[in-house]
Design brief:
175 residues
Length: 175
């Protein structure tokens, strides 16, 4: 079979980049810049944010690094071209809720955030619209080779799943 007719699939780190671009990047104050290979097996996704507080909040709630076997993808949140440091992970749930609100308030998919207690554990639920995020991904199971995912589940791929002792569980609005 010639190389021209062979099947090519998007590597999982490109899918992760698209998760970030089509979720966090759906914000008028955020630009997810092109992923760069900084060394063999190490990639960087710069995220430029136009508001310093929002940048720090995003740096706090986004996964800083995702590992795909021998491939590492790092997210660097920038404000005015400079990397920002995340807030110290708060133990207080009300502060954590405010961080999520600041990070996501202008995001197209974001609705609200609230907390709850399940089996004695506190959980923060960022709640997103009931929408599908779609992008081209060489998906052979889709007629048009697209990835199609519920917004909350796509955000779950790019957000921390736990901050200190608090679980983060993205959810979908109930309407």
């Amino acid at each position: 079979m010639s190389e021209e007719g062979s099947v090519k699939l998007s590597p999982p780190w490109y899918t992760f980049f698209n998760y970030l671009k089509h979720s966090i990047g759906k914000d008028q104050c955020v630009d997810v810049l092109d992923m760069e290979e900084i060394s063999e097996g190490d990639f960087l996704i710069p995220v430029e944010v136009r508001d310093r507080g929002k940048a720090i909040a995003l740096a706090t709630i986004l996964v800083p690094c995702k590992n795909f076997g021998n491939i590492n993808v790092r997210i660097k949140v920038l404000y005015c071209g400079r990397a920002v440091k995340p807030y110290c992970h708060p133990h207080d749930v009300s502060v954590l809720i405010k961080i999520f609100e600041e990070a996501l308030e202008t995001n197209y998919y974001f609705e609200y955030v609230e907390s709850g207690v399940l089996f004695g554990s506190t959980i923060v639920f960022p709640v997103f619209k009931r929408e599908v995020i779609q992008f081209f991904n060489d998906d052979l199971s889709d007629l048009y080779s697209n990835f199609n995912g519920v917004a909350a589940m796509v955000f779950a791929e790019v957000l921390e799943s736990r901050l200190n002792d608090v679980s983060i569980r993205p959810s979908t609005v109930n309407r």
